[in-house]
Amino acid sequence: MSAFTHRALGRTNKTVHRLGLALSFGLDPAGFSAALERGLNYVFWGRGPRPLRGLFREALRKDREKYVVATGPTLGITRGSVRRSAERMLKVLGTDYLDVFQLYWLGKMSRWSDGIAEELVKLREEGKVRAIGTSIHDRPRAGKLAESSPLDLLMIRYNAAHPGAERDIFPHLAARKPSIIAYTATSWRRLLKAPSGWTGQPMTPGDCYRFCLSSPSVDVVLCGPSSLRELEENLAALEKGPLQPDEEKWMRDYGRAVHG
Length: 260
Fold this sequence. Notes:
9 helices
C-alpha cells in the first residue's frame, strides 16, 4: 500500500484506493468482482446496475467497513426526496449507512437550498450518512462551497485538458479540507486521441489517472472500465507512481492542444 495509491478519505474515516470505480460503462459481474478483489473500494454506485446489485450487497455484508459507498438522490431534488432517496438506497444495498451521499450536478440537476442542506446534515447526524457532498461543474461556485458550506466532499471535473480546478477550487480547500473526487479524467475520451497537428503519442487512460492523482488536492479519481482488461491496464499504470516533471510537462502541453 503506497501513499500514491491509497489515502484516508475525510469524514468517511476509511482508507481508500485512490482509483475509484464508476459503473456506468458496461463492466460485467466478473469484472466488478475482480475490481473489488484487487482493492478498489471507493464505489460510485449512482443508480447502480441491477446485474451488479447482488454482488455488491454480498460484498458489503461480508465486510462493510472495507468499502466506501458513494451514491445520491434518485428522485426529484427536494428536502423530502433527499431523505427518501437515502433511505431507499440503504434498503437497496442492505446496509445501515452510506459513506457518501451527494447531490448530482449541483446547479443543473440538483438545487441547493437551506432545507436541502439541513436535511443532508440531519442524515449525517443520524449516522445514516457519513459524509455529504455534491458533484458540480461550476468551479467558482465549487470554490465557495469548499470554503464555506456543510459539504464534506466535492466531485469535480479535472483532467489535463481542464485543469481549471487548480485555480478556482484547490486554493480554497485549506480551511475545511473537503475531500475531492475527480471525474472525466480522460475528458470523455478526448485525451485518448491525438489532436490535429500533434506529432507525439496521445495520453493513455493510465496517464490520465496518474495526472489527476499527482495533484495532492485530489483524493480519488473515478475510472470507468468496460472490461477486466481495461481495469488491469489502469492498475498497472498506477504502479509508475506520481508524474515526473518531464511527464507532467508533456501532459499539460498535450492537454492544452486537446482543449484547443
